[in-house]
Amino acid sequence: MSRMPENFLWGGATAANQCEGGFHEGGRGIANVDVLPAGEDRRAVMEGKLPMLSCDENHYYPSHEAIDMFHHVKEDIRLFAEMGFKCYRFSVAWSRLFPKGDEEEPNEEGFRFYDELIDECLKYGIEPLVTICHFDVPMHLVTEYGSWRSRKLVDFYLNYCKALFERYGKRVKYWLTFNEINMLMHLSFMGAGLVFDPDENVKQTKYQAAHHELLASALATKLAHEMMPEAMIGCMLAAGSFYPYTCNPKDVWAAMERDRGNYFFVDVQSRGEYPVYAKKMLERENIHIEMGEEDERILKENTVDFISFSYYSSRLTSADPEVSKKKTTGNVMSSLRNPYLEVSEWGWQIDPLGLRITMNALYDRYQKPLFIVENGLGAVDTPDENGEIHDTYRIEYLREHIKAMRDAVNLDGVELLGYTVWGCIDLVSASTGEMKKRYGFVYVDKDNDGSGTLKRSKKDSFDWYKQVIATNGECL
Ligand code: BGP
Description:
Blueprint: E1 9-13, H1 16-19, H2 42-47, H3 73-82, E2 87-91, H4 94-97, H5 108-123, E3 127-131, H6 139-145, H7 152-168, E4 174-176, H8 188-192, H9 202-227, E5 232-239, E6 242-244, H10 249-271, H11 276-284, H12 295-301, E7 306-311, E8 315-317, E9 327-328, E10 335-336, E11 342-343, E12 349-350, H13 352-366, E13 370-374, H14 392-410, E14 416-422, E15 442-444, E16 456-458, H15 460-470
Parallel strand pairs: 1-2, 1-14, 2-3, 3-4, 4-5, 5-7, 6-8, 7-13, 13-14
Antiparallel strand pairs: 9-10, 11-12, 15-16
Helix pairs in contact: 3-5, 7-9, 9-12, 13-14
Bound molecules: 6-O-phosphono-beta-D-galactopyranose.
């Protein structure tokens, strides 16, 4: 009861724009994620409210070097192997393979980094799990086509998928079409390259863009199944169930509606059609999604094989506008402050049982295998006088979440393919652009302002996680 099933995929997860760096190397083109500055303007740029279509002198752009995995790949994968990783989730930078995004043929040089990365993983018996698009859109597609608001993006994305499947189809089994697809609704520029005009009907644009991503996801799933019969294709949701603030039915209703706002995407990707509640909502709000004749059939016939998600916290909501003022931060969406929970240094609430609740909710709803592809604690790590990091707080967070995950599997019967800890090596924070918000088992010597030697060192959590994997989750 205290172990995970055989062949459970323990590991870690990263994203290209948060760890690779080398943003101009090998012919890579510039992407939306490269123009996200650190500092106070970041939020408005991420939301698409403050257009930043190129870099300027007044801002610092942390993705440009990130932790320079581009030049440390062997060292980093070796460290993951030393922890006993069975799986490593990473993303491919679209603009490395298609610098502008609308080229017919991929940039051969761009493959080299991933060739090496994947070979290194396989050398150590680590299963690669590839996120095809983790927020990035080549900037040329943003400026020339308006990003995902244009249906043309579907073709460009598919061309990119084809290049990936051709190259890596024999070596990679697990693929995710879009990271946190529901991010499009909240941080629309970071998540989908959307910039809004002041007088634009933003909701209309978001749902049209969402339709294009959903269609692209279904077509990529189709292509993957045709080209790689063994492959497993997943969707990816920024998950975390909403709790009602009180037992007032109005609060319960509010929580259900907020959950549906997120489920919408996975409902389409997993069940193959727009759920009725969404159709009704679109009708009420006078939002009209332009669809091609075949779109509904394509969605229906090409559903995903598994449901992956990130989980950092549960969420809390209320129907009462007064109560709704007591907010705290969280992944993508803010939440009300739950008095029963503690928070991280960044105000994200810590709720291990919420992971079990979320897993059960997703499994009940979709009846497909789940994969936890992000979970972890962003914290300040301070090296002691010997340069060591005793991150007991991180161990504690992960231990409690792993216990909840074990219960969901062993006591509730949820089918779970694996668990990859977010930011298994320190990397740039997506929401804040900071290095100080660290998730890793491996410390990277680099500061918020970009200074540091980039030297890697093991934290206490490194050996702890190694033992967790070695005992298949028994020894926590
Ligand atoms: C998710 C993203 C990741 C990652 C993580 C942690 O939204 O998929 O890219 O960054 O959250 O968030 P943050 O970096 O803001 O702490």
